[in-house]
Structures
1.
Amino acid sequence: SQSAEVKTNIITLTRFLTEQEHKQKHATGDFTLLCHALQFSFKSIAYYIRRATLTNVSSHRLHTFHLFQLTSPQLIGLAGSSNTTGDDQKKLDVIGNEIFINVMRGSGKVKILVSEEEEEAIIFPGNGKYAVVCDPIDGSSNLDAGVSVGTIFGIFRLADNAEGKPEEVCLPGTELVASGFTMYGASAQLVLTMKGGDVNGFTLDNALGEFILTHPNMRIPKKRAIYSVNEGNTVYWDDACRAYFESIKFPQNPDEKPYSARYIGSMVADAYRTLCYGGIFAYPADKKSKKGKLRILYECAPMAMVMENAGGLAVTSDQRRMLEVVPEHIHDRSGIFMGSYDEVQKVTAIYAKYD
Ligand code: AHM
Ligand code: MG
């Protein structure tokens, strides 16, 4: 028939989390509540990014790609409304960071929060058991062009005797209890994984205001001839790195086609595409960025966990398993290669020849 079928039994993120909680014998509900808070921050950020895009289009002035500060507690008074002046503008990445911090504080479940935007770890009073690490709006240099950006997050369960010191969150990705990211694109896509679990994708239904499970048990294809790297850095790469990218661009075997290049420059979007289609994403350490560019705690490790749980791999520039790297400082960086299992193995095999 012509009439669209109405789905009356959808799995929202809320329902998904409840079902997960019921599978855990000793669950207290704290983790579930923390995830509820997290999803609210994603929804808010998604909303403000959409608003900013609208403002930008209607004003025809790139400079207005800011939001006006909310001076009242109501969700009105955004860009375009009266009684606001240019002085009240706040950059979207600042807003994203503030939303994240306020929501995490309000959850009552977090003791330590690390944000890319904050020099120091934020310690909340109270008896939160969790540490949350995040990059609230990654890829923000893309915002003015309306290109997808995203939030990356990881959750650690702190030791019972944790005092709330920044060094207590300098943990390897193997200790993450959950991680994921939300990509703010044509729609907001939330990808979530828990320790030892599947990777599940949710799409924000703007009308319902709910994340709906649309991509259950995401698996990254075992291989795919797509590479994603900032090739403008080639001059800084070491020999192994150059040899690898040469090998996929100029295949020796006549049956093999050269790889396609795809680089958005927004890690969440590049990683999401890699997860969906397969291939490899890299931000190698090089002569200019000796430790790479991306941050271990809230960029590399959460993504590595998603990739591994989806059947892929993630390694550092010295070909160690990304998830086992212990950062010395909360903002430490690492080179990274991640994506399809076979593609990352190829990288490791070539690096082994240059050891
Ligand atoms: P940011 O945290 O300052 O936004 O930088 C991180 C971003 C990633 O999203 C992306 O993968 C990378 O920087 C792109 O860097 P480059 O412009 O050097 O290619
Ligand atoms: Mg970032």
Note: DSSP finds seven helices and 15 strands in the chain.
2.
Amino acid sequence: PEKVSLLDIPVDNLAMTEAVEVLVDLTDSYRTQQVAFVNADCANISFKNDDYRKTLQEDADMVLADGIGMKLAGNVLKRPIKQNVNGTDLFPRLCAELENTGKGLFLLGAKPGVAEAVANWVRENHPGMLISGVQHGYFSADEEPAVLEKIASSGASLLLVAFGAPRQDQWIAAHKHELGSVKVAIGVGGLFDFFSG
Ligand code: UDP
């Protein structure tokens, strides 16, 4: 899809329905595709943090403009983007598309119990969506290999990582070759806290 450079971040210029379609297509990819949501806060961090900016420029296969701030920045900078594609609107649509496809979801991140609560939200609202696994985001460096193994052996197609930016996106970039059958790995910030009730 068409990229628009906003504050040195290559943003995919997609409307919500298009973004969902592309993500569904990417779940048939031959390798793990990295997706990042960037809001105004993230753009600010990226401006100051070279490693994060490089991750968005070089590691991410897809960057979605999350929040009205990015839409406004596009207008002001005369690089208008189609739509604000935020994670809280996108997540239920993605679940609806992946229901009954056998493509599983792994939820990684947030405080203990939160990912499990999001899994329960999914089970209630999208009963045909396969949950491949859950794991909280407060594991130690020593525990990391076991977490990677848990994901790699889960059979998941879609991995959501909720550690907050920039850590989640740098974590995905560092580990995308260790995620087994995961085809799409998305950094989702505070999304789990929103869907945990
Ligand atoms: N988080 C985590 N592990 C950590 C630090 C944070 O899993 O070591 C989680 C935190 O519980 C929250 C999420 O990361 O659910 C995102 O936090 P925040 O809302 O601060 O991130 P943002 O949406 O601003 O990127």
Note: The chain is about 45% helix and 20% strand.
